[in-house]
User: Fold this.
Amino acid sequence: MTKVVLITGASSGLGKATASYLLANNYRVFGTSRDPHKYNYDKSIELLTFDLNQPETAQQLVDQVMHKTGRIDVLINNAGAGITGPIEETDLKSMKYHFSTNLFGPLSLIQKVLPIMREQKSGLIINITSIGGYMGLPFRGMYSASKGALGVTSEALRMEVKRFGIDVVTLAPGDYATDIPTRRIYSPLKKDSPYHALYKHSLDTIDEHVYHGSRPLDFARVVHKIIKLKKRKVHYLSGSFLQKLSLLLKSILPDTLFEKIIMNHYKV
Ligand SMILES: NC(=O)c1ccc[n+]([C@@H]2O[C@H](COP(=O)([O-])OP(=O)(O)OC[C@H]3O[C@@H](n4cnc5c(N)ncnc54)[C@H](OP(=O)(O)O)[C@@H]3O)[C@@H](O)[C@H]2O)c1
Assistant:
């Protein structure tokens, strides 16, 4: 039977590459965008409307897929946004918005998909987190926190739904060459902010890492491998050797030494 995959954020970057790859491997693929009409050029992927900050669009999205196929085998919560800004100057409203984008949005969709997977007695949910969600990164505290929270919530959810035949995993990318910087949410700095120079320097470094990152196609292959596995781990990483190594270093080095490495890496 052809597996039905719903992948959010398929108009660009990792989501688009994964949607195309799965389509080429005979999956029925539905992608999402906040504005699918903008992307009409690629008719091979059925793009539906979904906005992480409008949870009511989650039910409409699921209804549309169910109307067309009657099942959802794999949900890939890929849509998300890069978020930057110094913690001191990020107001509470923005912090809530950041969490709404990278945590509550994916969770709202999961809540709508779970009853369907429970009824099917099978299903796989892949939550795309970030290697940056395993550690606090300077000027990306809200991003790290929201992705870290998605990872921990996935661990809890996995245990809750296992008995229904539903599997939940996370996949944390390192740096991939996508357009994520153009969609990034930048917290504005105050005019007299003490962070101007450091923040700019740090942003330049982050962007450089992304633009020199791995190929989205490699990421798509990892997603496909995870889907095909019979027995899955809780967490997966995907990225360069050094990025994966950073997690090992974090677990074995004294925290102040690891902090020094990170500060040096991001030039802060
Ligand atoms: N690229 C990396 O280096 C990297 C590293 C670690 C983690 N990640 C994670 O991987 C995922 C994909 O990233 P990417 O690099 O492919 O980014 P991207 O090229 O900017 O693509 C993001 C996708 O998410 C959608 N999206 C963005 N904000 C949205 C919102 N508020 N509501 C609904 N959809 C939204 C976009 O669709 P529309 O704009 O059409 O709505 C787009 O399709 C993200 O969760 C990101 O955090 C990426």
